[in-house]
Amino acid sequence: MYNIVIVGAGGFGREIRQLVPDCFPRASVRVKGFLSSNPNDLESYEVPEPILDDPERYVPADNDRFLLAIGDIEHRRQIVLSLKSRGARFLTLIHPTATIAKTAELGEGCVLYPNSLVMNDAKLGDFVLLNLHASAGHDTRIGRYCNLCPYATMNGFSVLEEGVFLATHSSVLPGCRVGSGSKVSAGSVATHNVGPHTLVFGVPGKHISLMPK
């Protein structure tokens, strides 16, 4: 039996806690608790498991397996690297209502929420999040740590480089590439290639740099 440790104790972490029984055989896992830098994160909620420690200090046990529940992309990356340097091993969580083509590939530590979609020959890197109804069309490529919010859509042959954020109801048109660290705002459409560290907003999407001047 694996002890599941949820990394993050905010709303995202509590959502993951609710999804665990649907995603893993009950006889094979138990939820051990949460990691958070704020020991009071769960104070106002009815959650049976405790906050075990700060993720920067926690020492993994041999049978611990981790689920990543941190939304901020740069924070996700930092915490994953810190935990993996101490031997942490991450699970991929796939809700049973998610649709995944047989030819799709998923990396380590991915999280696929209810009704998410990964089509044929799509490839997801490590620690990618597909939230409710988010979709990766055929032959798409999604880099590490990317976050697709509810109803975000990647059309066929589109590419997200590492650490891209697609907000709710945003879209990337077929064949478009979105550079590393970029963001597509809610309801916006990336109609052309997007450079790194760029914000896309509107329909069709306009581009502004996220880099300080």
Keywords:
213 residues; mainly beta; eight-stranded mixed sheet; 23 strands; globular
Our count of helices gives: 2
Give me the secondary-structure category: mainly beta
What portion of residues is helical? 10-25%
Number of strands: 23
Strand arrangement, major sheet: 5-8-11-14-17-20-22-23
Task: Enumerate the spans where pLDDT stays under 50 for 5 or more consecutive residues.
Answer: none
In terms of DSSP E residues, the strand content is: 25-35%
Overall 3D geometry? globular
Euclidean distance between termini CA atoms:
52 Å
Q: Report the order of strands and helices.
A: EHEEEHEEEEEEEEEEEEEEEEEEE
* Quaternary form: single chain
Average pLDDT across residues? 96
Largest sheet: 8 strands, mixed
What is the rounded Rg? 17 Å
Q: If you had to describe this structure to a student in words, what would you say it looks like?
A:
This protein is mostly beta strands and 213 residues long. 12% of the residues lie in helices and 30% in strands. The strands form four sheets. An eight-stranded mixed β-sheet has the order 5-8-11-14-17-20-22-23, with no helix packed on it. Strands 6-9-12-15-18-21 form a six-stranded parallel β-sheet, with no helix packed on it. Strand 22 and strand 23 form a beta hairpin. The protein is globular. 39% of the residues are buried. The model has no long low-confidence stretch (mean pLDDT 96).
